[in-house]
Design goal:
D-amino Acid Aminotransferase, Chain A, domain 2, 2 domains, four-stranded antiparallel sheet, globular, five-stranded mixed sheet, 13 strands
Length: 201
C-alpha cells in the first residue's frame, strides 16, 4: 500500500507565520481523520531559519501521522491571466494531499491558458492550486462548492470580506473578474483573471 502523505503550505512574512492557527487546525484535523490522532506542533518564529527571516517565504510541511519534513523557500507569485474551464469529474481533494496527480492530469487540458478552472457537475470549484473569489463590481463571492477549504478562504469568510455562493458556469458573465487566493496570495496581491479570459473551448 502506497504511503499517504499530506502537505501544508504556510506564508511566512519577516519571520512570522501568517494564520498559524488555521494551518495547525487543518494539519491536526487531517491527522485525526486519516490516522486517528494528531501530533503536537507549534508554528513559532524559532522554526524559521535566520536567512529566511526577511521577506515573503513559503513554509512547506510534509506529514503523515508524524511531521516528516519542513522546508522554507522565498516566494514570488506567478502571474495568471487566463483560465481554461475543465471538468473535474469526481475529483476529491478535501484533504491537502502531497500527491497531486489528480491536478496534473487535469492540467493537460489547459491548452495555452495559464491554469484551469475546475468545474464539477456544473458548479465552479477551484483552480489547480487556489481557491477563487468572484467580484461583481460591488461584492466578493467564493464558491460554496470548493475542492479544498483553504485557510485564506476561511480567514476572508471569518472577516466578512467575502461571501459564499453557489456559482455555476452560466453565472460567470454576471461577474467582472476572478481572484486567485491561497495561503500565499490574498486579494491584495491582485492575482486576477478577467471573465473574458476564462476560456471554454
Amino acid at each position: 500500500m502506497e504511503k499517504q502523505l499530506f502537505i501544508e503550505s504556510i506564508k511566512v512574512v519577516n519571520g512570522q507565520f501568517v494564520h498559524p492557527q488555521l494551518h495547525l487546525k487543518r494539519i491536526q484535523s487531517t491527522q485525526r481523520e486519516v490516522f486517528g490522532q494528531a501530533v503536537p506542533l507549534e508554528l513559532t518564529p524559532q522554526l524559521v531559519p535566520a536567512e529566511k527571516c526577511q521577506g515573503t517565504v513559503k513554509c512547506r510541511i510534509i506529514y503523515d501521522h508524524d511531521i516528516r519534513q519542513i522546508d522554507f523557500d522565498f516566494y514570488i507569485p506567478r502571474p495568471i491571466n487566463s483560465l481554461k474551464v475543465t471538468d473535474g469529474g469526481n475529483i476529491d481533494y478535501h484533504l491537502k494531499q502531497a500527491d497531486r496527480r489528480c491536478f496534473t492530469d487535469l492540467l493537460k487540458h489547459k491548452g495555452e491558458c495559464d491554469d484551469i478552472l475546475i468545474v464539477r457537475y456544473g458548479q465552479v470549484t477551484d483552480t489547480s492550486y487556489s481557491n477563487v473569489v468572484f467580484y461583481d463590481g460591488k461584492e466578493y463571492f467564493t464558491p460554496r462548492t470548493y475542492l479544498l477549504n483553504g485557510t485564506r478562504r476561511q480567514f476572508l469568510l471569518q472577516q466578512g470580506m467575502i461571501k459564499e455562493a453557489n456559482i455555476r458556469l452560466e453565472d460567470l458573465p454576471h461577474f467582472e473578474c476572478l481572484y486567485l487566493i491561497n495561503a500565499m496570495i490574498g486579494l491584495e496581491d491582485n492575482i486576477k483573471v478577467n471573465i473574458p479570459n476564462i476560456k471554454y473551448q
